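Thought: the user asked what Thiamine-phosphate synthase looks like in 3D. I have the sequence; next I should run the structure tool and report back without guessing.
Action: structure_tool
Action Input:
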Amino acid sequence: MTPRLFCLVSERDDLSLLPALADAGVDGFQVRAKSLATGALVALARRVVAAVRPAGALVVVNDRLDVALAAGADGVHLGADDLAVADARRLAAGLLVGATCRSRAEVLAAASHGADYAGFGPVFASGSKAGLPAPVGVAAVTEAAGVLPLVAIGGICAETAGDVRMAGAHGVAVIGAIWRHPDPLVAAKELVAAVA
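Observation:
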């Protein structure tokens, strides 16, 4: 089951809040810490799994199938330069496999290779990751919907999450909307309500 609300997590975030975020209804967490060495990334992923699984939330690891398997995570999210979706599906048939997509054609390709969902975006401008392409906009969500569950990402907050869902997204993924909010728990509750 693809989560409605993914919260991306790195080693820089306040991990003590994870159980409360999961209890508030954040049903997916993506571990994304590109600068960590493999051992530290496995340790981080294990910590996230232990913190949120009691509430029933799922955990995927960004880029690294090996880390997802070692940490006992529920899935992996793969970008264009990562392990191919078809290879991940073959190696880990039981895991949730997500693929980064920016167009309907990419969503169709991801589906044909065995992806379970598409991380779609950036929908809006975002300051959370350097080097992102231009935002695709809400209309692109509508155009790409209906092939795989779309998890929209990029500049999404509680005020825009509902619009993205109405446009056809299954759910959303956020970083700053939770972690840069003065009260991450309040922000999470607002986002949960917006994607319900």
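Thought: the tool returned a structure. Summarizing for the user.
Final Answer: Structure for Thiamine-phosphate synthase predicted. Strands lie at 5-9, 28-31, 58-62, 75-78, 96-101, 117-120, 150-153, 171-174. The chain has one domain: 5-195.
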